[in-house]
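Cross-check.
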Amino acid sequence: MKLLLKKCGIYDYSIYLDKETDILFAIQKQLGSNSSQNLGSNPIVRRWRVYMADIIETNPDNSLVSKELIQMFYME
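Predicted model, tokenized:
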């Protein structure tokens, strides 16, 4: 999985757990024009989603549930 993400230009990827709510939060940084959203059909990603299914909320098509967040602060 890590090799696949790196091949797609992802160079910084973290998943955090909020123990209070059992909610996972992921953030990634990516170089280039590729999109990780296109990886859903990749067999490696599909296996990872099956493996993580007991702790990651998925849609009926096994895509990850995502919610748009409002950026409250940013500093470069």
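The longest strand covers residues 10-18. The CA atoms of residues 36 and 67 lie 16 Å apart. Passed to J.P. for a second look.
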